[in-house]
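Hello,

Our lab assistant flagged a job as stuck in the queue for most of the afternoon. It eventually completed. Since we weren't sure the result was trustworthy after the delay, we are filing this so someone can double-check. Below is the sequence as submitted and the structure that was eventually returned. Let us know if re-running is recommended.
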Amino acid sequence: MADVAELKAALIAALSPLEGITWKRMFGCDAVFHNDVIFALVWKEGRLGLKYTEPEDFAARMVHSGSDRWSPGGRTTKHWVLIPNLVAESASQLSEWSNISHSTVL
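-- returned structure --
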């Protein structure tokens, strides 16, 4: 489990070039919205989650070692990926993955 505060700081930095981003508490964690649509979160168990509504984007993320489907409360979500820690720790990769997720809610 990674430090939640560090993950949030990394996600804030990755999303800083984007406009219209808002943060709210949801699912017991910090969630990121654009146009009132959630697309990212800092999962309380120490992982970053990103939403990929395009099947190709989702599949491309799931093939990476360390990617997991988000299953809060035992319910597996359809479009959410808990991203690998190595991606979360890389500013450039986190920005790339976050931008792709954000682009689907424009």
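-- support follow-up --
The delay was a queue issue, not a problem with the job. The result is valid. The longest strand covers residues 37-43. The mean pLDDT is 93.
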